[in-house]
Every structure is written in structure tokens, then in C-alpha cells.
Amino acid sequence: MGFSGAGATERNSKVDGPSVFRPQLGEASVGALAECKRVACRELLLCRMPDLSAPGVTKHVVVMGAGPAGLSAAYELTRHRTPVTVVEKDPMQVGGIARTLEFMGCRFDVGPHRFFSKSAEIEALWTEVLGDEIRSVSRLTRIMYRGKFFDYPIKASNAFLNLGPYETARCLLSYAQARLRPVVDPQSFEDWVSNQFGRRLFEIFFKTYTEKVWGIPTSELSADWAGQRIRGLNLVEVIRNALLPASWRGGGEGAIVKTLVDSFRYPRRGAGQMWEAVAARLAAAGHPVRLGDEVVAVRHANGRVISVVVKDRNGGTLDVLGSEFISTMPIRELIAKLEPAAPSIVRAAADALGYRDFITVNLVVDRANVFPDQWIYVHDPGVKVGRIGNFKNFSAAMVDDSGLTGLGMEYFCFEQDGMWSWPDADLLDLGRRELVALGIVRPEEVKAGMVYRQPKAYPVYDGEYLGHLAVVREWVSRALPNLWLVGRNGMHHYNNQDHSMMTGILVARNIALGANYDPWLVNTDAEYHEEERVGEGSGGDRGAGRQVPQRIAS
Ligand SMILES: Cc1cc2nc3c(=O)[nH]c(=O)nc-3n(C[C@H](O)[C@H](O)[C@H](O)COP(=O)(O)OP(=O)(O)OC[C@H]3O[C@@H](n4cnc5c(N)ncnc54)[C@H](O)[C@@H]3O)c2cc1C
Questions:
Q1: What pTM was estimated for this model as a whole?
Q2: Nearest one of 213, 212, 193, 215 to 203, comparing CA atoms
Q3: Regarding beta strands 84-88 and 290-291, do their DSSP bridges make them parallel or antiparallel, or are they unpaired?
Q4: Given ligand 1 and candidates 113, 210, 495, which is best to mutate, with the most ligand atoms within 8 Å of its CB?
Q5: pLDDT tens across 312-331, in order?
Q6: Are strands 324-327 and 483-485 parallel, antiparallel or unpaired?
Q7: CA 278 to ligand 1 center in whole angstroms
Q8: Which of 74, 108, 425, 531 has the fewest CB atoms in 10 Å of its CB?
Q9: Whose CA is nearest to atom 23 of ligand 1?
């Protein structure tokens, strides 16, 4: 299965050259490390130096961030016996955005994280690490709109029944218009989706929720994102799936679209259980994650990164040296931390990358069964909440007391918004009031709650981001070839866990084995995450779907 994608070859175009892959510490590295030792010993409280002179030790990798990408990279490195140090700024927990929080015996993900991948390798890794602790879940998720529940994935029959004959007629008419007179070369999310579904259905099922999530008018969101997330789906396909038996739904090549997977896997005690388990394995292998170590500077000299400076939980400063460096930090932060500073054009490009932030108001409800869905999308424009997760419907073990229910209410915002800095009490009050307004609980049923703020939850795809990203990528690959960008914010790519993991794994192989994988090809032309075409195979490279790039021909 081929990989293609614009702007995918910067690093690869140089993979044959000596400057990209340095599995052995070359002269430049040794010189750089000597320079670092000198600087470090002069300026820092403590200089920790992997013993690169020990027999057989030629590499030491420093991983910045213990989310799915960083931990997967570290885990893969240890499989290849490559020494690694993982530094994580959070003092308590690994897992990054995929962590699981605990409050009053209820567990909450930072927004529900289901485990689904088209990559057989990633699925196998989840099984390897979690064994029986990861289980299959039958999906039930619906959309709430004007007090009614609509099936999600959208089913034509259910949608039209709920909308009633007048609204249905409007939808079909606007779909016919879109087919007859589509927007030519659609650039925005709005035009792209309207072409696929018609304007009226776009307004009901895509506009409100998308604008809640991104805080940007859909007319200004790039069509790229729509292409990545919902490609292959249009009204005809939705209706065909709703009306025809599975055996009649063949695509051009006989493929059956299992549109929008109806089951996924989930760890018994939340998404974070996976990452705690990987961290435990790393610790057992002698590479414990250094929690509470925040990267405050990334030092480079002679065209190579030589160390990262971390501030530890006691305020002390450490210099962590290595031969290769993997960053999962948001690109904007990474570039700002470079010493000496990156060229101004690169800093400006990184600074221009945008992010969407995210608050979860996690409420403990004194009722055993609140609704049967794992989550509900809230399309009503009258409330701020975008989605409500019900974690005990992922796994009964998400609550210690089966008489209680943990609901995670998701609010999308910008750090600069007023809402981000609202006091927790106000956010809890908002969550409770909105649950009541939606008719989901009675006020007295909400026992308690806690608020979690996740900065930079989403990399924003605006009209300019690709250009800015290209500037950063080109400079990093040319100027600092031992600095690898992986993960979601690490690559400014709207990756799920499996994509984030795969980028880390591929880079680990590049470092440990001298392989030529291009992590930038992961998820570039992936079909909608939830869609799988039966018949594409389930093993080896084919089963890995489009998430595993082909090896570049040498
Ligand atoms: C609401 C929501 C729902 C999601 N649902 C799903 C889902 O259902 N399924 C799925 O597969 N994926 C889902 N995802 C995506 C998934 O969370 C990400 O793909 C994944 O967490 C990205 O992993 P990462 O390691 O690249 O980044 P992160 O998870 O962001 O981890 C980066 C780590 O780096 C650390 N760090 C940052 N700066 C520094 C620093 N200066 N020094 C040291 N450490 C630092 C952070 O503390 C963090 O631990 C969802 C995401 C969101 C926001």
C-alpha cells in the first residue's frame, strides 16, 4: 500500500547522506559532547552524562515527553537495546493527553480515548502490553440536537425520522443542489463538506460541533482536515449503508465499507493504563521515566543538538546529554527553547502555529445508569459543552462504586479565552447547569466534580499552517539532523494515539537500526480514522493501512 503526500520528502531526500542518520557517534557528536560537557560543567548544577565511552555504547537517546509518541519511541528503542532517557514535565503521571485521571473512585480520560487502529502492529502492541486488561467495546454514540438523539455514525433513516418531513425535504434539496453545482476546488471545510452532504445537512451535523471544537468558522478551516477525517463518506454512501444489506454495498473494487467502526478496544481502567504499563516496562528495563523534568532549553552546537536542559521538580537544573533527541513537545515550544535561537524566520513560523485548548469538567453523578452511550456529541448551539463522555460505558472498572457514574463534559476554548481562567467552581457550576438543561440529570444528582485543563489539545489547521510547518521542518532536518519531531503536537499533525505511536516507533527504528522511515508520511493520506475497507488485508504492511509508510527505495 503506497504512501504519498505533499511535502513528505524533506528528510528522506537526504537519507542517503551522512548528515541524517548517525547510528554511530561521529566526530561531530564527540566534538559537540565535549563542548556540552564544558558548558554544562561550568553553568549547571549537575551534569549527567551517559557513559558513551563504555564498550558497545554508541548512542543515547533523549525523549522529550512521556505521551503515547514518546513512550512508544522509548519502548521500541529498548527493544533494540538502545539506551534512552525519557523526560516528562508532569510530576505525577505519564500518558500526555491520553492519561486517565482519578477522582472520588471515578476515572476520567482527557476526553474519551478509544483504541482503534488500522495498523495490525499497533493493535498487537496494545495487546502485548495490556493482555486481558484491554477489552472490546461495542460502540454506542449519538448526537444530541434540539433534544433528540441522532445515531452517530449518521444513519439516513434515523436522521430523517428525527428531522421530520419538512427538514428532510430541505436536506435532500440542498444535497441535489450540491451535486448539480458543487463548489469547484473547495478550499474550506464548509465547502468541502457541503459538496459531500449538501448545505443543510452540513449546518445540522457538522457546522455547530466543528465550530465548538475549533472556535473557528468552518469557512476558515482548511479542507485538508475534512479530507483526512471524513474522506470517502458522502450522503449517497450513508444512505446506501443504511438501506442495503452489507453484501450489496460493494465499492468499485468490491470493498465493503465498515463505515465508522462499531467496536473498538479500551483498557479496563482507562486509556492511561496503557501508558502507565509502558512506563513500568521501561522502568523494569532500567529506563524509568523522569517525571517532573521539564525541558527548558534545547542546546545545540556544530549542527547537532547536544543536550536538553531540564528543570526538575525541586527547581534544580540538569543537563541531559545524548546523541539523538526525540521531541514530542509542541513545535512552537520546542523552537522557542533552542539555544542558540533558531533563525528568526523559523521562530516566526513556529510562533504562527495555532492550537486549540480543552477543559474537561468531570462530574460524579449519583445514579447508576445515566445514558447508555460511551459519549454524546452535543450539537445544540444553546450550550457550550461539545461532548459528554460516560466512562463506565467504556469499562465497568472506571468506577469503584457501581451506583455512581462519571461524566466528562468537554469544553473547547483558547488559553486566551476568558473561560480558560474561570475559577474551577464556575466551571463546575456550568457543567452541572448544562447537564440539567439538556435533561440528562437532576441538579441534586451531581455529587462533586473536578476540572482538568489541557493546553494545546488540538493543533489547528488554518490556511497557513502547512507553509509554517514546512519552514520549521526544512530547517530542523537540515540544521539539526539529530533532532526528530514526532507525535501530535510534536509534528503539528492531527494524530490519534496510533499515529502518534507509529511516528515514535519509526523514528526509534531509524535511530536504532539506521532505517529510512519517514514519520511525516504517517497519517498523511489516511482514510477517516474510523473507516476500514474490508479486503485491504489484515497483516504485514497492507494491514498496517496507510499509517505505516513504505520504506523509501534506496
Ligand atoms: C479530546 C481528545 C480525544 C482524543 N481521543 C482519542 C481517541 O479516541 N483515540 C485515539 O487514539 N486518540 C485520541 N486522541 C489523540 C491522542 O490523545 C493523541 O494522539 C496522543 O495523546 C498524542 O500523543 P503525543 O505523545 O504525541 O502527545 P501528548 O499526549 O501531548 O504527550 C506529550 C507529552 O510531552 C510532555 N511535555 C510537553 N512539554 C514538555 C516539556 N517542556 N518538557 C517535558 N515534557 C513535556 C507533556 O506533558 C506530555 O506528557 C484524542 C485527543 C483529544 C484532545
A1: 0.82
A2: 193
A3: parallel
A4: 113
A5: 999 999 999 999 999 999 99
A6: parallel
A7: 15
A8: 425
A9: 68
